[in-house]
Amino acid sequence: MKRYVLSLSRRCFPNLSSSELGSTPSVFSFFFVGSLSHNFSSLGLTGTSRPFPDYSAKKPTIADSELVLHISTTIKQRRYEPLRRVLKPFESKFRSDHLIWVLMRIKNDYQLVIDFFNWACLRKDPTLEARCIVVQIAVSSKHPKTAHELIRDFWVKPNLDIGLSFSHFIEHLIYTYKDWGSDPLVFDIFFQVLVEAGTFDEARKLFDKMLNYGVVISVDSCNLLLSRLSNTSTGVDKALYFFSEFPDMGVCWNTASHNIITHILCRSGKLKEAHSLLLKMESKGCFPDVISYSTLVDGYCRAGELEIAVGLIGEMGLKGFKPNAFTYNSIIVFLCKNSQVVEAERVLREMMTHGIAPDNVVYTALVDAFCKLGNLQAASRLSNEMQNRQIDPDNITYTALICGFCRSGKMAEAEKLFHEMLGKQLNPDEVTYTALIDGYCKAGQMKEAFAVHNQMVQMGLIPNIVTYTALADGLCKQGDLETANELLHEMCSKGLELNVYTYNSLINGICKAGNIVQAVKLKEDMELAGLHPDTITYTTLMDAYCKSGDMVHAHELLSEMLDKGLQPTVVTFNVLMNGFCISGMLEDAKRLLSWMQEKGIKPNSTTYNSLMKQYCIGNDMRSTTELYKGMCTQGVIPDCNTYNILIKGHCKARNMKEAWYLHKEMVSKGFSLRVSSYNTLIKGLFKKKRFAESRELFDEMRREGLVADKEIYNYFVDLNYDEGNIEMILELCDEAIEKCLILMVTDAFDILTLLIYNHVINLLQI
C-alpha cells in the first residue's frame, strides 16, 4: 500500500522530490489512505486494498524437472547459435507446461526470456498464463513496448469472445503480478490496448477492478480513453462523464486532459462550457498551454465568432504563448470560408514571418478559396509555392484547382492538372470527375464530357445526380432536348430521383439555349411532379427575360415569386439590375439599388458592377466614381470585374493616372487584368507618352501568355526602332507570328503577321 501511496502522490504532486515524499510518510499516508478510503466507500468498497494473490505454479515431475534443467542449462550456455539449433534435441519432448518452468529459471535474463518464448510459440500457442508471465517480465525489465505487443497480439485474434477473453486475461494478469513483476504499469498497458481496440466497456471494467487492488490507472492512459471516446458518435457523453467522475477515484487530470475535453465541447458547439473550463483550469492545479487556447480559438472560428477568437489570441500573447500552426490554420480557414481570401493570405504571410511553416491544409484552403472567387492566377501561384516548399498537393488540392479551371472554362488547364494528378498516383473521386464533366458541358464539348463519364464508370465510381444534371444541362444548352430527356430517364431507372436542383439546372440550360418558352413549360412540369420552384428557379427565368429585354415578364415573375412567399436574394436583384442596365433604364436601376439598401438587402460587387459598367459606357465617370466610393463605404469589397470595368472606363475618359492607380491596387489584392483591359490600358498610357508604364504592362502581358492586339505590337515595334533595338523588333515579330498562328488556326497565313513584317521592313528601309 505504501508503494501505491508514493506512486499516487507522485502523480498528484509532480513537483515534489522522492526525498520530500519519503520524508513525511505519516502525513502523506494519512492523506492518501484517508482520501482513498473515502473514495472506495463511495464505490461500496472497504478502505483496505485487496492484496494480490501469491503465484503457485503446477509442480513438475522428476522427469519434467530434469528436462527443464537441461533446456535451461543449454540455452544459458549457448553462445551465438540460434535457439532452434540448440533446442532441436528437446523438441519432441517439449510441452506447454515446460515453458513456464523454464521461464522460472531464466526470468532474470529478459532477452533470453523473449527468445525462448518466441521459439516456444513457433511450436505451439502458449497458454494465457505463460503469455501474462512474459508480459510481466517485459514490464519489470523496462520494455513496455514488447508487453504492449504481446497483449495486443492476443487481443486482435479473429473470432475472439471479448467478454470471456477479458475475464480470463485479467485473472491471469492479476495472478502472475506479485511474483513475476509487481509493476502496476502492466495494467496501464492492458488498459491502453483495450482502448485502442475500441473495447471501452472492458477498459472501464479494468479501471474499476484495479481500484479494488489499490491501483489507479495513470492519467496518460485515461487521456487516451477520453481521446478515443471523443472520436466516436456515442462516446462524447461517456468522455464527459468519466472526466467528472474519475477524480473521485484518484485520477489527477492534467493539462492534456482538459485540452481533450475542451476539444470535445467545442466540437459539440458548447463553446461557453469550453471557455469556462479554460478559465477554471488554474484553480484545479493545471495551467492552460498554447494547445488549450488554440483549441478554443478553432472552436470559435468554426462557430463564426472571429472577434472572440482574435481576442483569445491576444490573451495568449499576454500569457507569453505564441500562436502555433493550428492557431493560424483556424483563422485562415475561417477567412477562406467567408471569401476573405486576401486577408487570409496576409495571415499566412504573418505566420511565415514568425517561422511557422504552413501545411497542406492551409495551402489547400487558400487555393480552393481563390478558385471559388475565380482568381486562378493566385490559386496557381499558391499551388506552385506549396510544391516549391516540398508540400505535396493531395486529391483535395487538385480537385479544387480542377473545379476552379472548369468553372472558368479553361478546360485545357483542367485536363493538364487531371493528368498530373493521375501521374502522382492520386485517385480522382466523384467530385473531380463531375467537375470535369460539368466543365466540358459548359464549354459545349459534350463528346469529351461523355468520355470522362465513361472513364469514371470504368474506375468503379458511380455517377450521382449532380453528374447527370451536368450532362443534361450541357445537352439542353446545345438544344438537344431529346437526348437530355433520355438521360433523365436513364437517371430515374438507376433509382436517382429528379430534384429541384436538377430541374433548375435544366431550366438554366434551356434558357442559355434561348428557349424561354420551353423553360417556362419545364417549370410547370416541375410543379406537376410535386416539386415547388424555388428562388433559383424564378431568378433563372427572370434572368432570361431580362437579357432579352422583356422586363414586363421579368416583373411578373417577381410578383408571382413574392406571392408564393419566396424571398428574393441578392442574385435576384442583380438579375433585375442587369436587366434595367441592358435596357438603358438607369433611373430604374438606381431606384432598385436604393430600395435594396432601404430594405436591408446588402448589394454585392455584382450589383454595383452592372451600374458602373453602364455609366462607363456613357462616359459618365463622375457617377461611376460616386458609385465606387459608395460601394466601398457600404463595406462591399470590389472584385476582379469591378477593377476591369473601372480601368477601362477611366482609360476611355483618358484618366490614365486614376486607371494606373486602380491597376496597382487590384494587383496588390491578387486580381488580374483581362486581355481587353490590358489592351485598353496600354494604349491609353502609350498615347499619354507614359512609355515606361506601358512597357511594364506589355511585358507583364507577354509573361502571362496573353495576346496583345495588332496596334500594340505596332506601338512597340516603333518604340524599339526609335531606340535602335533591332533584336527586340525581330523577337516581337516572331512572337506575333506565333501568337497569331495559335489564335487563327484556320487561316493559312495571318494578315496581322504581314502587316507587322511590312511595317518593320519599311522602317528598316528608311
TrEMBL record:
InterPro entries: PPR_P_subfamily, PPR_rpt, TPR-like_helical_dom_sf. PPR repeats lie at residues 183-217, 254-288, 289-323, 324-358, 359-393, 394-428, 429-463, 464-498, 499-533, 534-568, 569-603, 604-638, 639-673, 674-708. The keyword Ribonucleoprotein does not apply. Keywords: Repeat. It comes from the Eukaryota. Belongs to the PPR family. P subfamily. PANTHER family: MITOCHONDRIAL GROUP I INTRON SPLICING FACTOR CCM1, PENTACOTRIPEPTIDE-REPEAT REGION OF PRORP DOMAIN-CONTAINING PROTEIN. This is Pentatricopeptide repeat-containing protein.
